[in-house]
Amino acid sequence: MAPDIAALSFLLSVSTTADLSHHVKVFAGTLNGGNNFPGVARPFGMVKLGPDLLNIGTDSYSGYLANGNFSGFSLMHEQGTGGAPKYGTPAQLPLVGTISNPLSSITVPRSSKPDEGSVGYYKATTGQDVVVELAASERAGMFKYTFPAGSTRNNILVDVSHVLPSFRGQGLGQGYAGGEFQIMSDGHYEASGVYNNGWNRSPDWTIYSCGYFNTTPTTASSFVGPVVVRGVASSTSSSVPVGGLFTFDEGAVLSRVGISWISKEQACRNVNEQIPETATFDNVVQATKDAWNSQIFSKVTTTSTNASNLELLYTSLYHMNLLPTNKTGENPGWESTEPYYDDIFTFWDTFRYSTALLQIIQPTMYEEFIRSTIDIWRHDGYLPDGRSSNYNGRTQGGSNADNVLADAYVKSVRGKVNWEDGYAAMVKDAEVPPPNTNPPDPMAPEASTKEGRGALPDWLKYGFITTKFSRSASRAVEYAYNDFSLYQVAKGLNKTADAAKYLTRSRNWRNHWNPKQTAIGFSGFVVPRNETDFLPVNPLTDAGYWGDATYQVTSWGNSFGDIHDMAKLVELMGGRDTFLARLDATFTPGANPANPNGVLFDATNEPTFNIPYLYTYISLPNHSVQRSRHIAKTLYTTTPTGLPGNSDAGAMQSWLLWNIIGLYPVTGQTTFLIHAPWFESLTLELGEGKRLVVTSEGGDGTGDSRIYVQSVRVNGVSWEKSWLVWEDVFAEGGTLHFVLGEEMVEWAKGEVPPSPAS
Ligand SMILES: *[C@@H]1O[C@H](CO)[C@@H](O)[C@H](O)[C@H]1NC(C)=O
Ligand SMILES: *[C@@H]1O[C@H](CO)[C@@H](O)[C@H](O)[C@H]1NC(C)=O
Ligand SMILES: *[C@@H]1O[C@H](CO)[C@@H](O)[C@H](O)[C@H]1NC(C)=O
Ligand SMILES: *[C@@H]1O[C@H](CO)[C@@H](O)[C@H](O)[C@H]1NC(C)=O
Ligand SMILES: *[C@@H]1O[C@H](CO)[C@@H](O)[C@H](O)[C@H]1NC(C)=O
Ligand SMILES: *[C@@H]1O[C@H](CO)[C@@H](O)[C@H](O)[C@H]1NC(C)=O
């Protein structure tokens, strides 16, 4: 076949970058709550095409499960999130035989062959021996079906009503609310579906789709429920599905499908531009691999040849760069020339270290993402904390977009970012209580969980949050962090009075400090309170949920939360030695007598992920290395159960990546804590030809042994501080060289990292 323009553009997209994608294990962290998405997608792609498994009673957050039947293969998924599933729509499902009522929630068992996947490619075999292979561009997907030899009634069901269900009984299950399906005169189909709810309690959203087959079916029928209709199949009822059944004699069928949030026309444009008729399946797979290699994997390279560490590195990079979703031009009802990113799921999870890593390895994307985040405030009135299906929600703690914006501001993200608007958006969070969610969130009915700071009335009135508001103690810790973020940006913009005000407010977590609250010999904790009194808690066991005072964190962990005020925290906890003893107790098995085999540290959830590094604030970076390396090396692998908790849009993987690099970001400040790198050499491409090269000698090259720093050089100069700042090695690039060894020695003799609020 002569190459035409479209085929040529695929050829041109083939880069000379080395193929690092073969290190990625797409099934890593898919099970045991990791919820990683194993299907096919481009970096930040709007289409995430993968299998949907139905196992009654078990929520499937990213479509994939170890058990269950295939209910479809759908174009939209999240990555690694918890709470309740989102998306799983629109779907196709291959079915062999005579199908009289295709929209009756048919599922097909799996075959004995396990699913296979690699970057850009997915393969599953159904119990009817149909092979389904998947590939994707940013906004379109390709399905390659191979039916069993000799089979003639080969059907492909297109189900507009398909979504990932929830069985948790929390009222967060997604719904289908109607749709349209039409087979056009040339044989392609156009559809729209309306869906609602899911984890962020979103009202109706609409997905348009446009699908083509490469061969003519023997019959093609549109259905409204069980009824075949001519023309447009249409339903406005949640109980009446719409879709189509295409029946083929042939055993090999290719389907191309585009989606859009705007219109059917745009869905058709998306597929015809990105996966034109001339595209082969292999073209699309290869273009996806190339995109990952050139946009993501080539940004982090190492001289290490250790296969398991390379797998961990590139698999982590893969799963952290699937979200947020680049939906530029796909924001219905907006007149905007700004970029648009959705599926922020959620800043509560990602603000500590994930967004800081995105900035470094994806500076172009990150500037777009910051502009988009501010543009969401312009259009919706508030910055998002969580967001999906174009709808803010839910907000679990503070307004943590403030921390992300502050981090970007202090690290000089400028370009086309309008920082006066960015700051105005942050002031809205800090000053204007959001109207309550309508209807109120049944899990926290007293104030908004959609956006902003629901407990702001107390914060403004008292400088603390009473138990009139749910999650009061964990929100107080986060609101203080958020106010510190306002201080940082106000200071940069020369808003002196605001800066002073928010710095003062950033210390208000101290108003929750009960010096008399004790646990296992330690006294002084952040606790819930009413107008006049502190309330008693059990700091070891009080991790709660939406309606409780501490959300997904114990008072033990929550008390460590305000990293901008660490010197004060050390003082309140009783000084350096007691602080050290308390950190040690956090990691010592059996420190909590009620849990003799467990530790107080919760490696499964983000709010306490800074704690292993806090030793650095008392000049013991060696202990930070010991604790954080133990967690990284014992709890993270590339097996399907290889994540300690929900990936949460790649937040977990980002934590691991910082551990591999040897630095840890203090979000909202320019500070990076220095611990120790795993490899002899690792290079981060920072954009515009700048790079940070991290080298080491004396270690074992894998980060398993001889992990302790003996000495450090920054840009060739001997370094005695346990931290550095953005300008040192990131603004213009730089070098870090570590001498590593067996023994913990005193290498960090300089000042401790800054505590700007103390
Ligand atoms: C899976 O498929 C089998 C065989 O068709 C069926 O008996 C079973 O009920 C299905 N399970 C689910 C969860 O749909
Ligand atoms: C995001 O999508 C838009 C529209 O397709 C594109 O122009 C832009 O380059 C994308 N951003 C990145 C970082 O790829
Ligand atoms: C803030 O003031 C300093 C000192 O006058 C000046 O150099 C800087 O450009 C100002 N920054 C802004 C954002 O106006
Ligand atoms: C506050 O809590 C204390 C201690 O439990 C209690 O005695 C007091 O009545 C509470 N005050 C209010 C206003 O609820
Ligand atoms: C590769 O690294 C892993 C994990 O750090 C280690 O267990 C293994 O021994 C290393 N393999 C070689 C050949 O060094
Ligand atoms: C860690 O280093 C400090 C000095 O920086 C030293 O006092 C301490 O003993 C070291 N810890 C261990 C367990 O060796």
Distance between the termini: 70 Å
Bound molecules: 2-acetamido-2-deoxy-beta-D-glucopyranose
What spatial order of strands do you see in the largest sheet?
A: 4-5-6-7-16-11-10-9-14
Helix content: 25-40%
- How would the global form be characterised? globular
User: Count of helical segments?
Assistant: 18
Oligomer: single chain
Task: Specify the CATH architecture of the domain at 26-292.
Answer: Distorted Sandwich
Major sheet description: 9 strands, antiparallel
Secondary structure tally: strands: 31
Report the mean per-residue pLDDT as an integer.
96
CATH fold-level topology of the domain at 26-292: Beta-galactosidase, Chain A, domain 5
Structural class: alpha+beta
Strand fraction equals 15-25%
**For the CA atoms, what is the radius of gyration?**
26 Å
List descriptors.
31 strands; GH92_N; 758 residues; Beta-galactosidase, Chain A, domain 5; hydrolase activity, acting on glycosyl bonds; alpha+beta; binds 2-acetamido-2-deoxy-beta-D-glucopyranose; 25% helix; seven-stranded antiparallel beta sheet; nine-stranded antiparallel beta sheet
